[in-house]
């Protein structure tokens, strides 16, 4: 079988060479080791020897530049068939693909050694493995530090808080492990409490411009859209005594490793059940129609570093509270870790937003288009409620505010739905 | 309970190892009849003979390299490089050979070599005889580095270094050789990689090595009078470093000072500061302070030498900086 | 009986074995050149073409338990000391099956079981450890010898002088084999040494020195055997000055712009140790081809073996740092 003579890589970084002249002609007998042609490689012109003995059957590149790995001639036995194109042949001299080196190495001298271009894929693997490591070689700060009451805040955050007279402890940290970072303080300063009286005025400083991340942009766009829908809100309070009791009982029975059910999970269950009774609320505005959806895919609004995200628990009406708790814990964790998939965000039919844990009593949520409604829930507070006997007693009340798209729903339908949710919360047995 | 000086403690560890173990031998310049330029090996020639207590020519390359070769054959040589400044002469053998044989052979070889050396300023030895060069060696994967600051530590750690299967650079400090301490009768090996808390405290952690451990303790006494409670930790082994102990202490006190006699800039203390900053970021109430020599070769004239090299006062000033308030 | 044999030289059977081994090294090195040019072998590669007789002649004079340390041009020594071509080729390919398990490569070939304490990328880097190994043998009263290979370039570096001095001072059973090919990379000996006879350097330390023509494997073997025996008998270290020729460049791809092409061509004609032995044994073409086929097959198989070998995992890089 004929041997192809390929332009060799004679040094690191050598990509091509120039054939100056052939020392043997087509038809000549060639010995192994005999000089075959002269090659110019930028700094030096040298003779290149034949690697096999035989007859020089064909010269495919007689003169001029050729890439490393190009077939430039064929040596074989007299009379053999030669199937090689003239001019630059295939790339690469071996079975493995010859690959580009990442760096442009221009004008290299003959250098000792080589990175082994055929091994580039292997090198890439090594680089990838190093870059993708979760645990770096330098230990990351220990998790679960037992900081106790200590507020974790970056030095910069502390400085800003100090300057603006903001109480660090009142802030929710969005940094790693709940660390308060500068942005959290800025956010609080922008819309938050005024500085304590007597605090020094903030020293003049530069206006800090925080460029929008793509998440922020998306949130802004969608909420602006939502704002254009004609919306109305209705509010009701639910007595959470029975719901809390149910929660406590369920929490007691939780096994090691299982997600602990929260009041939100009970609320999700109540809404899902109510959505099945009031199908008109489990709907999408579709411009020229109203879509009634078969399943209650309930989205839970989750605050993350980058902003707000609403992962969905699909078919919530079919799940038990324990299953809802597990699903909720999973998507919230993944949301915080930035590991949500598209399917987690798609298909929602209803959204619950709970700011109760921040002490908010009542608020109005913005619609999550094209959904018909969104439920905003505040903190459970003990309030005085008149009793039959003429006195008062303290009951745990939670305010719920339903924002509705008036194109899809009207007040009566919305009120019916919310009354059902309230009923389910006040008497969970009704959900069965 | 015998009272031993630091140098006697080193000698004790060497001697006990050599009595127990045919494979242990020592070599270096002037260690035989003279007993070493610092008197550490005095008397050992008489006990063990010239085969196992070998004077060498002035050949740091061969001293270390021969040690490497014997170690590769399973012996446990303890070679001495008279001044740590001269480790530079044998750097190639330490860094390119000793540290890397195991790795380059894919695990076929071990190099259980111990290189003992000493250094330190204080009596105008001049720029070429007083350096503290541990930072160069902790930076080489494959080496272990130990720096004992007390007689008990020296004895226990040298034993562990000899019986560690990796090349260990064992730093001693010249001004500590005379330091005396009561020791247990039995030699108690101290594991490598374990720090020692010399003094407990609540307000600031001082991580110190070598001579500066004692300077730090003196500074701590002073600070106490000012109402500042100082914890003093000696890592003892520099590579591998007891990060947990150091970080744990800083999480308790919220303030850290790193002190060594070596030049501050790019010194070993920079690594400790980086580790502390990274792992105790949320616990730091003040920046990590570093105390070390100024960035200059060591001058000869005593007034200049004392200026360049750090002392208790410098450690105290650093402590004070960590707790200071503006108003 | 032994003395008579020695005078008559090495037996023909043994010489044929030497021939096969030298040819194996030659074909192996040629294959390495080929695979390097194909881009498959990363790193630095220095082949020992022209110096096969030194590797074979010396290593075959050693006994089990004797150890060697080599240079950056280590393939010949490694094969001659008993490492299988498969393991050597696998190491050049960076596979776990390589003799250094992929951690070392061409310049850090180790085969401790077979007494190979490592090739060394630092010129003269392995000499002090050979002194140490020999010292350990002496300490333990073992009849073992430690052998260091190095080139003429290394006779200028500090390790050379400190090692020879200490070895002679302490009379350790070491043999220092100078493979004098008269080139330190691109610098001819006349430009790196003020003296012409490098064995004088050993004599300066009071060390016994022997000289031999490195292209005659039989002579090399005889002299090496004498040197090793001298050391083994406790008579002290020996310096063996081997005159040899590097018939290729310093590294693969070295165009040797610094070398007289005609002179090199002449050397390739007249000083090839394999050709010389072939003549001495009066091997016929058929005999030659038979041996050639056999060793070529071994070499080809070693490439297959290497290519099918196991890549280390990236994180294996963090193993074997500490014992």
Kindly describe this structure:
The complex is a heterotrimer of chains A (432), B (327) and C (323). Chain A contains nine helices and 18 strands. With 432 residues, chain A is of the alpha+beta class. Chain A has three domains: 3-95, RNA polymerase II/Efflux pump adaptor protein, barrel-sandwich hybrid domain (OB fold (Dihydrolipoamide Acetyltransferase, E2P)), CATH 2.40.50.100; 152-206, Dihydrolipoamide Transferase, CATH 4.10.320; 214-431, 2-Layer Sandwich (Chloramphenicol Acetyltransferase). The longest helix of chain A has 16 residues, at 321-336. Mean pLDDT of chain A is 81; it is low at 86-109, 142-147 and 193-201. Chain B has 327 residues and is an alpha/beta fold. Chain B folds into two domains: 3-182, Rossmann fold; 196-323, Rossmann fold, CATH 3.40.50. Chain B has helices at 6-20, 44-48, 60-72, 91-98, 101-104, 134-138, 151-162, 211-225, 243-253, 268-279, 302-308, 312-323; strands at 3-5, 24-28, 53-55, 76-81, 114-119, 144-147, 168-173, 180-182, 196-199, 204-208, 230-234, 237-239, 256-263, 289-293. In chain B, α2 links the parallel β2 (24-28) and β3. Chain C has one domain: Thiamin diphosphate (ThDP)-binding fold, Pyr/PP domains (Rossmann fold). In chain C, α7 links the parallel β2 and β3. Chain C is globular and about 50 Å long. Chains in contact: A-B, A-C, B-C. The interface between B and C is large, with 41 and 45 residues.
Identify the notable features of this structure and list them briefly.
heterotrimer, A: 432 residues, alpha+beta, OB fold (Dihydrolipoamide Acetyltransferase, E2P), Dihydrolipoamide Transferase, Chloramphenicol Acetyltransferase, 3 domains, 6-stranded mixed β-sheet, 4-stranded antiparallel β-sheet, B: 327 residues, alpha/beta, Rossmann fold, 7-stranded mixed β-sheet, 5-stranded mixed β-sheet
